[in-house]
Model the fold of this input.
Amino acid sequence: MNLVEQRVIDFVAATASKEPTPGGGGAIAALTGATGAALAEMVANLTFGKKGYEEVQSEMEELQTKAEAIRNRMLELSQADADVFNIFMNALGLPKNTDEEKATRTAAIQHAYKDAAMVPFEIGELAYQTFDLAELASKKGNQNLITDGIIAAINARAAVKAAFLNVRINLSGIKDEAFVANVTAKMNAIEQNLDAKEAAIISLYK
Done:
């Protein structure tokens, strides 16, 4: 199933169903992140050529390029999240009748757990990058769209939190302690700034 080519109504219905994909919050986090980037990108697009914004055109061009890249990657990650879930389920279904089969199955499950953690981790990292784009859009973009820039930041925060929850539940099954510690430390560093970054951008609307 190609999630990103579905109609919105079908994607949401599939999420609500008992079907294994799109499954949990990883795909939804990616979609939320994509909409955050899209809002920042929209502000840039609607700032181009506007009277009074001549001095920020180059910044808006850079904003548009970065936001578009994040938006597109988020959609790819939405599909990737569903794909790694299927790989994990296949690993669980491997035979375990002999010691060799058990070892092969355990290794496959551990590998799948890591993949299942790293996809939402990338979603969270990208969503975090969207804060800078949302701030620029809100501060220097078309001020008729300042609330859209702010909502980009709100969506980015939601995407980070949702993605990292998915990371943590997968880390709980990983036996590689160094891997778990490294990823956890990176998430903690990002999450320390989330509330302050969101609050600062929201405060731009007075």
In short: The mean pLDDT is 92. DSSP finds seven helices and no strands in the chain. Residues 99-140 form the longest helix (42 residues).
